[in-house]
Amino acid sequence: MSNLATVEIKAFIPAKDFDLSRRFYADLGFVEAWSSDDLAYFHAGQTSFLLQRFYRQEHADNFMMHLLVEDVDAWWGHVEAAQLALLYGVRAAPPEDRPWGIRDFTLDDPSGVLWRIGQNIPQAVWEA
Fold first, then answer.
1. Closest-CA residue to 106 (of 91, 121, 87, 119)
2. What is the pTM (predicted TM-score) of this model?
3. What is the pLDDT of residues 50-71, one digit of tens each?
4. Residue 68 resides in a domain
5. Which band of pLDDT confidence, cut at 50, 70 and 90, is reported for residue 2?
6. Is residue 115 part of a domain?
7. Which residues contact 22 (CB under 8 A, 6 or more apart)?
8. How many domains does the chain have?
9. Residue 1 placed within a domain
10. 79 vs 6, 33, 117, 122, CA distance in Å?
11. Which residue range(s) make up the domain with 104?
12. CA dist 74 to 52, 94, 111, 119, Å?
């Protein structure tokens, strides 16, 4: 099975307005490491994705990203301090403990892609 080792997986996220989405992700805290006319490579730490100049509403409305972080409350604090929901006209809901053992918040991007940004919580907390 060692010949089947993997290195990385990346999602291609749709963008209705490519430049607006690039600014949104930079303001959210991702670094744009590379871009072309139709594609931009973003990363934060060891996580990354590709933003593409491609949009179909049905696709974007059903697209979800799940980002695990070390400190979800720090990420939420950044979202609030940067006023991303107001600045980009998107929905954001504060962190909650979920029954599946994650504390997360939700944030839509300008194209309608739903992000769930969260951290694992100790099993004892969510089993109680």
1. 91
2. 0.92
3. 999 999 999 999 999 999 999 9
4. yes
5. low
6. yes
7. 15, 32, 35, 40, 51
8. 1
9. no
10. 32, 21, 11, 24
11. 9-127
12. 28, 12, 24, 11
DSSP the chain: -GGG-------EEE-SSHHHHHHHHHHHT-EEEEE-SSEEEEEETTEEEEEES---HHHHTT-EEEEE-S-HHHHHHHHHHTTHHHHHT--EEEEEE-TTSEEEEEEE-TTS-EEEEEEE--HHHHH-
Asked if the model's pLDDT at residue 128 lies above 90, the reply is: no
Tokens of 16: 């209705």
Indicate whether 3 belongs to any domain: no
Spatial CB neighbours of 88, under 8 Å, sequence gap ≥ 6: 20, 24, 27, 109, 110
Q: Can you give the pLDDT at residue 5?
A: 87
